[in-house]
Design the sequence.
DNA sequence: TCTCTTTCGTTGGAATTCCAACAGAATTAT
DNA sequence: ATAATTCTGTTGGAATTCCAACGAAAGAGA
């Protein structure tokens, strides 16, 4: 666990927690780690979860597949970030999404109830963690609201522009990289890959943007 | 404020709070009420909010309008429910949505920071409220995820079926009422109203469902 | 370096949505 | 009760997306 302390101290769940408190905290919470290979399913759609995860290394995606084989990507989550926290907190009976690894990954798992309920040791950090968790879940809601802004656009062109504008704003530059390949971007925008490529080419020909692989520039 | 105690004690923010504690709690939090007429804007897109609202009576919608005049409805919220809590908790600088009343409404406003930070009186309910708020924000997260499930479908037919199936599940019956008129339903599903009506007619002719106004039955 | 696999962009046809316009039904206001 | 307004469903054409197929470019593995 020590090898990941550098990662963990940057996790916003632990904001305001002294570095020296991290190890006892994780012990108190019975946190566990697990290694996953690329392409493995961490949480299956339909299951009930009580633990959420933190990505120590690697990358995961939150996805939903329909019966026709269309995949929707809800989010891509990298090192130092959390996943599944809302479902674990709400104690939902059937997870509506799956969580899969897109690279080999080390993941940390924490039981939500143990975090939220003060233990017999009356550890002082429980209330700090709950405050932090409230802030994190609120921020996730804002990200989901932004995703709805994108998926509720009527045309592929509008979805692309909404997404790329948001990425530019996040990068504070009109030159930025996106974290998806073409198929993943199409799945994130819920459109068809080849039609999206055609639309990207049109946008370039119209002088709206330039791109090369995952590098984009808004003009 | 007394007239709404019956409503307030059912609000899940106050779960586990004694009815006798409600009035002092609201005083401690400097909660305020306001009356809005139908069609008024409660929160404007772009503003920064520190307070969230509780609907005492009436109904509000969370919406987003684009420059072409297309409206997306994110949610419709009625009596006894909260709105804006994720944005207030996260202290976001620019609200990405607007909140408007669809009927005359009485709304209660609570400052998120006052709720989350124990006051000088060391009132005991702050930690209970934060636990409740975490649960509520998590549940909102799940509702947003369910909305993305709908808006990420590729066809109007699929969006309708996804939405109506979810409403049936919520009603625990294949006969149920939906809370929208046709234009509102189209805005909620992010599709065009007349095309959606045509698709509803097709679904009825295909023997998939029956409907009359806002009454639906899945076959 | 070569071979195999994956990714990306293009294309044309089928499917679907959007849009404007309209008429009739339902609702609201007088 | 009547008039005005709003809501709903229909229609046809334009616009757009999906889809399958394909070839070229890029990347990975031997």
Sequence:
């Amino acid at each position: 666990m020590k090898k990941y302390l550098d990662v963990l101290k940057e996790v916003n769940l632990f904001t305001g927690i002294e570095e020296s408190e991290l190890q006892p905290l994780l012990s108190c919470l019975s946190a566990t780690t697990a290694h996953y290979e690329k392409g493995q399913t961490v949480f299956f759609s339909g299951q009930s979860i009580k633990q959420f995860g933190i990505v120590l290394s690697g990358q995961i995606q939150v996805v939903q597949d329909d019966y026709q084989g269309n995949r929707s990507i809800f989010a891509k989550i990298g090192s130092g970030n959390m996943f599944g926290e809302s479902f674990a907190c709400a104690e939902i009976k059937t997870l509506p999404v799956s969580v899969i690894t897109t690279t080999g990954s080390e993941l940390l798992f924490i039981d939500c109830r143990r975090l939220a309920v003060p233990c017999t040791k009356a550890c002082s950090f429980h209330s700090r963690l709950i405050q932090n968790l409230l802030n994190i879940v609120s921020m996730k809601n804002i990200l989901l609201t932004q995703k709805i802004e994108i998926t509720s656009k009527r045309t592929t062109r509008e979805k692309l522009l909404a997404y790329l504008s948001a990425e530019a704003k996040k990068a504070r530059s009109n030159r930025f990289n996106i974290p998806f390949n073409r198929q993943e971007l199409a799945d994130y925008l819920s459109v068809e890959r080849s039609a999206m490529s055609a639309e990207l080419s049109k946008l370039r020909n119209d002088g709206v943007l330039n791109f090369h692989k995952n590098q984009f520039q808004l003009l």
Q: What stands out?
A: The CA atoms of residues 167 and 180 of chain B lie 12 Å apart. The mean pLDDT of chain B is 92. Residues 2-146 of chain B form a domain with the Jelly Rolls fold (CATH 2.60.120.10).
